[in-house]
Design brief:
The chain contains 21 helices and 29 strands. By secondary structure, the protein is α/β, with parallel strands linked by helices. The protein folds into three domains: 278 residues, ANL, N-terminal domain (Rossmann fold, 3-Layer(aba) Sandwich); 189 residues, ANL, N-terminal domain (Rossmann fold, 3-Layer(aba) Sandwich); 167 residues, ANL, C-terminal domain (GMP Synthetase, Chain A, domain 3, 2-Layer Sandwich). A five-stranded parallel beta sheet has the order 4-3-5-6-7, sandwiched between helices. The protein has a five-stranded mixed beta sheet with strand order 12-13-14-15-16, with helices on both faces. Strands 17, 18, 20, 21 and 22 form a five-stranded antiparallel beta sheet that branches. Helix 2 packs across helix 3. The protein is globular.
């Protein structure tokens, strides 16, 4: 067997993830598979532990009458017990359905009911409370199993069961049914549905993308070989388990390759835990890189002025060098000579501080990353690469190769992946990772899947070197009234390079000019305001300070200046902007759980503000309803300012 064909042939003894975990437990029983930080101490579990716990949970589910094909909702932060629950479900031929741990009751109710989940395995009281509140809306949900029992002692609902109790039931069940587990595990096949991942739902209700063991396993192995992953690699499992990126890395690739994943103590300790682990393999969507950049810039601003000058000098030097490398241009000798000194004084210490000194491979994906952010981290010596993928493709479509990273592309197709561009400019692809369809949604499947090809919904093209360039979401790319191309995400990413801008939404389709709604970063702008003695009481108060508008205007001017270098987009400069009086929030349905902008919803909700951006008013009174995590609602009232920005290069 030659070439990449060997990836397509799966031995029936090793064609599902439970079978591979069993193999890992036999071949390397004492190697650490997963760690978790609990009460400040890292607890380690071997591959033998991984398989044993999965087996016990599976037997516990079997004791409750679990049937092949049953769905299990999995909800909570990244915890070993939840990954074991995924494994246990697959051992019995069931289908895990991971959900976002911060999802509202309404969102949980939709997915749990739509997926027809009979069982739920959750982390703690918060998730138990949500599921109990929606149980009446989800008639198929029979059992809720929880790991952390704090606060649940007085709960008496008959559907509740602790994970420890479930495992005890499993041990008793095994006595009377000694052959059940191995028999069910052996029945598993590569074509079985391994997981249902619900999409973020930017344009409507979430859709359940079904992925088979073959889909995930083939693409995990292809990516492992192409990118050089090793069994001694370390990864951090901190992204939502409901996101297909985490499922691929923290579950599929970890099992297929045998490397170790590490679960942080909590969302609040991720950066600290990142430093302690020092991963070699790191995956983060652009918002995480944006947050890390903001953290760095706040620290730089807080430094004494000599140190601040020194750091800024070397950071600018490194970024100039990296831009020249990415563009294939010769590097000036004086910059090359100064680079080692910058590594000693700035880049090395910064990588250490971020917990990234050991990283061999880092990806960004989920949406486009701002070029300035991308260059910044590569300039520090971090091997950050852009990955283009989709849930429906088992993640991997194209990846930048080591030594062939380009600023404006998302790399070349992965092995076994074919890409073509439709007459309308839409990116189409096919691969062994392409899903069989959406659960209970043949209409959406037919719209997405065409004779094995996936319609991505993204506008892009392949350049002469075979690199894929993504312009924007096909439905979002448009033109201004004067005919200038308008690519909103491209402009928004440029704005978000600023540590002071957390989110931005640009408007311009069929309009005379581009306008922007901006969310400030409360941490970064608050820090900036405190250093200047500017008092404020809340996000709303701070956002409307004239000094803050001056600060954001500088960032808008920077973006406009950068557009002068682009012949196609130079006419799409931002001419008016306002700072929103509240942060865009998934609970208010303004962005998804993966922080993708719901443009249609924002256009409707903020119609008055958008019209003010295209009128002659410089202020507008607004009243907005906000939704809290517990479902309560409140109202925010504000007097929002609108500011003009002169076009860059007008006098040139």
């Amino acid at each position: 067997m030659s070439g990449h064909e060997r990836f397509l042939t799966l031995d029936p003894q090793h064609d599902t993830f439970p079978k591979l975990v069993r193999d890992n437990a036999r071949a390397m029983p004492d190697r650490i598979a997963i760690r978790e930080k609990d009460y400040g101490i890292w607890q380690a579990y071997t591959w033998r532990d991984y398989f044993d716990r999965g087996r016990r949970i599976a037997l516990g589910l079997a004791s409750l009458g679990f049937a092949r094909g049953d769905k299990v909702a999995v909800v909570g932060d990244n915890r070993p017990e939840l990954y074991w629950a995924v494994l246990a479900t697959q051992c019995l031929g069931g289908v895990p359905v991971p959900l976002y741990q911060d999802a509202s009751e309404k969102e949980l109710a939709y997915v749990v009911d739509h997926a027809e989940a009979r069982f739920a395995v959750v982390e703690d009281q918060e998730q138990v409370d949500k599921l109990l509140a929606i149980k009446a809306q989800c008639p198929r949900l029979e059992w809720i199993v929880y790991d952390d029992g704090r606060g649940l002692r007085a709960y008496s609902e008959p559907c509740l069961l602790s994970l420890a109790e479930l495992e005890e039931r499993g041990e008793k069940f095994a006595v009377g049914h000694p052959a059940v587990f191995e028999a069910e595990l052996a029945r598993g096949r590569a074509e079985d549905i391994a997981v249902i991942c619900y999409t973020s739902g930017t344009t409507g209700m979430p859709k359940g993308a079904m992925l088979t063991h073959r889909n995930l396993l083939v693409m995990a192995r292809v990516a492992t070989e192409r990118e050089g992953l090793r069994p001694d690699d370390e990864a951090l499992a901190y992204l939502p388990m409901a996101w297909v990126g985490d499922h691929m890395i923290s579950y599929a690739q970890a099992i297929a390759t045998g490397f170790t994943i590490n679960c942080p103590e909590s969302a609040a300790t991720v950066l600290h835990d990142l430093k302690e682990i020092g991963p070699t393999y790191f995956f983060a969507p652009p918002r995480i890189w944006e947050n890390l950049l903001t953290t760095v810039m706040i620290r730089v601003e807080d430094a004494a002025w000599p140190k601040r000058r020194l750091v800024r000098f070397f950071l600018e030097l490194a970024q100039d060098l990296e831009r020249q490398r990415l563009a294939g241009q010769p590097v000036s000798s004086w910059r090359r000579l100064l680079a080692p000194l910058g590594g000693l004084l700035v880049y090395g210490p910064l990588r250490d501080n971020l917990g990234m000194r050991r990283i061999r491979l880092a990806y960004t994906a989920g949406e486009a990353i701002g070029p300035e952010i991308f260059v910044f981290f590569r300039a520090l010596g971090i091997n950050l690469k852009q990955l283009y993928g989709m849930t429906e493709a088992s993640v991997f479509v194209s990846v930048q190769k080591d030594g062939d990273v380009r600023l404006d592309t998302v790399g070349t197709p992965m092995p076994l992946v074919d890409i073509k561009i439709s007459e309308q400019g839409e990116v189409l692809f096919r691969s062994p990772g392409v899903f069989p369809g959406y659960y209970k949604n043949p209409e959406a499947t037919a719209q997405t899947l065409d004779d094995g090809w996936i319609r991505s919904g993204d506008a892009g093209f392949l350049d002469a070197a075979g690199h894929l360039k993504i312009i924007d979401r096909a439905r979002d790319v448009g033109r201004l009234a004067g005919g200038t191309l308008f690519a909103p995400k491209y402009l928004e990413n440029k704005l978000k390079f600023s540590p002071y801008v957390k989110e931005a939404v640009t408007i311009g389709q069929d309009r005379p000019y581009v306008a922007a709604l901006v969310n400030i970063d409360l941490g970064a702008v608050g820090n900036w305001a405190e250093r200047r003695g500017i008092a404020y009481t809340s996000y709303t108060d701070l956002s409307q300070k004239p000094e803050v508008y001056d600060l954001i205007e500088q960032e808008v001017r920077r973006v406009n200046e950068s557009l002068l270098e682009d012949e196609v987009l130079r006419g799409a400069q931002i001419r008016r902007f306002l700072i929103l009086h509240k942060e865009l929030d998934p609970d208010d349905e303004e962005i998804t759980r993966t922080r993708k902008v719901r443009r249609g919803h924002i256009a409707r909700k903020y119609a008055a503000l958008i019209e003010a951006l295209y009128g002659d008013r410089d202020r507008v009174q607004v009243e907005a309803q906000v939704t809290y995590e517990d479902g309560r609602t409140g109202t925010i009232r504000a007097d929002v300012a609108v500011r003009d920005v002169p076009a860059a290069g007008a006098g040139r």
